[in-house]
Amino acid sequence: MSSRKEFRDLAAPEEAHAAIASLSLAGDAETVPLDEARGRVLAERLDADLDVPGFDRASMDGYAVRAKDTFGADEADPVTLDLAGAVHAGAEPDVTVESGTCAEISTGAVMPPGADAVVMVERTDEKGDDEILIRKAVAPGDHVMVAGADIAAGARALGPGTRITPREIGLLSALGVDEVRVRGTPTVGIVSTGDELVRPGDELDSSRGQIYDVNSYTIAAGVEEAGGEAKLYPHAGDDYDEMERILLDAAEECDLVLSSGSTSASAVDVIYRVIEDKGELLLHGVAVKPGKPMLVGSLGDSAYVGLPGYPVSALTIFRTFVAPAIRREAGLPEPRTATVTGKMATRERYEEGRMRLMPVGLLEDEDGETLVYPVDKGSGATTSLVEADGVVEVGADTSYLSEGEDVTVQLFSPDVRLPSLLGVGEDDPALSRLLDRVDNPRYLPLGSREGLRRLRDGLPDVAVVAGPADRDVESVDLGGWTREWGLVVPADNPADVEGLADLVDRDLRFVNRDTNSGLRTSLANALADLADERGVERHSLVDAIDGFDLTVKAHESPARKVLGGSADVGLGLRATATRLGLGFVPLGTQDVAVRANPARVDKAGVQAVSAALDAVSDVVGDLDGFESR
Amino acid sequence: MSSRKEFRDLAAPEEAHAAIASLSLAGDAETVPLDEARGRVLAERLDADLDVPGFDRASMDGYAVRAKDTFGADEADPVTLDLAGAVHAGAEPDVTVESGTCAEISTGAVMPPGADAVVMVERTDEKGDDEILIRKAVAPGDHVMVAGADIAAGARALGPGTRITPREIGLLSALGVDEVRVRGTPTVGIVSTGDELVRPGDELDSSRGQIYDVNSYTIAAGVEEAGGEAKLYPHAGDDYDEMERILLDAAEECDLVLSSGSTSASAVDVIYRVIEDKGELLLHGVAVKPGKPMLVGSLGDSAYVGLPGYPVSALTIFRTFVAPAIRREAGLPEPRTATVTGKMATRERYEEGRMRLMPVGLLEDEDGETLVYPVDKGSGATTSLVEADGVVEVGADTSYLSEGEDVTVQLFSPDVRLPSLLGVGEDDPALSRLLDRVDNPRYLPLGSREGLRRLRDGLPDVAVVAGPADRDVESVDLGGWTREWGLVVPADNPADVEGLADLVDRDLRFVNRDTNSGLRTSLANALADLADERGVERHSLVDAIDGFDLTVKAHESPARKVLGGSADVGLGLRATATRLGLGFVPLGTQDVAVRANPARVDKAGVQAVSAALDAVSDVVGDLDGFESR
Q: Among the entry's GO cellular component annotations, what is one (chains A, B) (predicted)?
């Protein structure tokens, strides 16, 4: 391990921006058909090369006349003109308007020879078959759009760098343009490193430590969102020759190469050596957290940036340093939606000395203000990706942010929307269905106890609490249901488990839920009752259960351990046992209550939860052991 | 013409919204591969069906140990463990950690049997080849991420209605999902009506009154921007049977049919009759300006909306009434960028009784505030499409908006950006090049005189003035150039035109510029000099020029009339004559000055103009008859 690189002399974040800006990521300009041009950026100025309209054109339905023939005409004293014919849009006039005559004309039709004005139909009357009464005098040019009046040939139509939106499509159509020269999209190659990575959709071998590749797909989507074209390369392990071959291929074919995916220092070392040997390394390590091991350099004619390995870190560094450079080259400035401002919901302290990119979640409070709270589950968690909405840049010399302080949040995507609801609490299958009826909710299944704790601190809109609450928190009960809980065992209960006593007295491998879970609280209470009954201390029963401290994350997890054969008994719900085809030994029924932050009961998201709870029997539906209350 | 429909009993705008909302535009849900899922909306909830990670995983590089073996270890008193082997990411452990041993482990690797914690490499030392010094005590679980700790199988991962952005792609990848069920995109058929319409790229016959189809392409781009899929149908004229066939085809194949394109009342009548005969007409005519002739109904299983004919009107009605309905069905809420607020730059009066959708331009003033000004060139102009940024909804009972009043602008596209600069004034080829060097400028080539007038009223950032100014306006001269002007004649000057006197004295067909143009002012001054010389009144010379009042829109237009053979002489620039291969008779040289609004000299766009003018000789370049000054 002595070959590992140390990240001394970290570059300042501004140096990283400058280093990336110094590289060329530009794609070649290209020609695209009009119907694929939306969202692209004009590569060069486009001047009109024809007049629009290309002819003198009636701008009203009515009669084409010689203006001087209408002199003096009014309602009281109309002029009579002979009807010489008609001109329709899309047809060449086959009539000439001589003095004393007129021709019927439709909006958009070519002005017939001789005519110099149009009298609108509302100011005329038919008089027999071949005479028209004109009840208004017109001047030459009235209701006529002369050739080139809209756009004249030779005039500047659209400048270079123009973003093509529907209205530009309209102007280009008017000019008869069916293909346009647009800026190239930077091609961005993504090389993921790590022998353990498997493509989504492929088979995963967990015993070999395989995991699905997260970064490649996340970053590829980020590249496309920033206006680049992403190209995924095969996974590379930490073999130097293989890595060199893949990186050189990518550099040959792309304007920018990103490496990403591995959290393994040895793979990062190999990349470092390839870039140092075959390209140029501009900087190695940036004074930012996360993101310290970032690399910036070039390889062949391509720019190169090495992203950190953890998903949130990789997306954060991509969003902060790389996406702006891709947008710049693509000519797509960052949309205004890409940042929001809000108030810190909590006070946060920082160690000084390194810029920090803090992942945060967003929430609207009762006054419609945006609250910002840090999300920190350790940057290795993929779930942080969807629990955080963006990043707050905290300067290297900032030691704390106060509660209520205004901060700017760089959203992970301009399409990120504020959740309509923040809920925290028990993991429960009926709740999951309830959330399906709310538009864009966010729910953190951290357990009933944690839900109540956070509700007391005032951040979430609702807490979901299962079983007896050990804490009194001011809240509004929005409704709820009951659920039957107990011991999940293999199908047909081969060990004949009958109740809690079997867990204590027999040699059964048990899997528990964590202490924040309402299921765990009910189990603890049941054990306390059993201890009372037996006249022993509760801990003596607990100590007798093999696996009491073996806790897993979600409500189905213990049952899945049973299903997988690594446990004999799991704490869980009847509904889960039924769903997974397992046996079930009931221990009780517990309430699940949705409790709202009293200040937030009028929030739309809370109202939506409340409305869904009004029809709670629909929500609970066929979930075995669930009842509306 | 008696069959024309009158729009009596106009519906209120809210009724139009309600009528459209009552129609079903929903497309069918579909399954798309992960790499095409960005921007789409999940059709159903997605629960995890595997644990992430799928195994107990080292979260640090270091040594896997039995925690109890490290008890009491610290820097002063390290513990020595035997190195039993190594485990790498992506490989199945082939080592078991017995008491007193450890195994080297990489971040992400599977914890070997026996081990329950990891000591990070920084707290260890190699001692010979097969022993490791452990300088820190660890507890069971330290630096280990247990199976399912990130996402547990059975847990709710993403809810229905979730917009898929890069971070959701990340979560889906982690779950190994390679295709997702997403909401269908509403398919929107666009039937353009009007015999005169030609597709961009096809040959145009102006003598038959043909024009390029603008609306179909503009609206198609708008449909796609709103999350729909646009399908263009062949142009239909005003033949009932053909129209019926096309509309029924479109209704069969699409969720929504829009008709658009014609300004001809007869074509609209035909559509009206088809919908009335074959479908259901919900409303006919809306109390909104523009957009009165809007139709809403259904045809077969498809919804139907008829848009007005003029491009800006069509886009305005589409944006106000139709795009929100498409977004709703596609599950894509309107982005926050789609509206901005600003202050009215002028006072505007309205006739009461009908809601008005006023096209407006936007501009940033010296204080960074957004100014909003009406753009009204007659809604038939295509150029209004790019001169307006969006629409202000003015209620039916509003009789005026005050200068400085706050208004909300619905942008024509969420991608519309505020121009960095608003310029008004002379049409000039060097100016066109100068603007190429400014990011996102807006320039209205309304002539020098109009530029000065507007600069005096304070709206634009700069005015561009050619020739002698007839008005004294406070401004800052940013620089400029000179240009040679005169008479453009056919190549080799076949009529031997020598100067202005020939125009007066000979029978030559002339084409002029409009009175706002600086060229026209210089011409008028030259004629005054000739009149003085001859001792006659100026108007007698003007009257003697055939075509003096025949004015065309842009600086090249007179020369193009000469090129096309419809005039013998045109007012113009030497540069234009050279470019088009025409002859030129010089009459003089005039200054072109870029003059800034004194309050706006520090605006970025004005600074960019100023910087470009510092290198004016680059801008003027090879333009014949142009000189920097």
A: cytoplasm
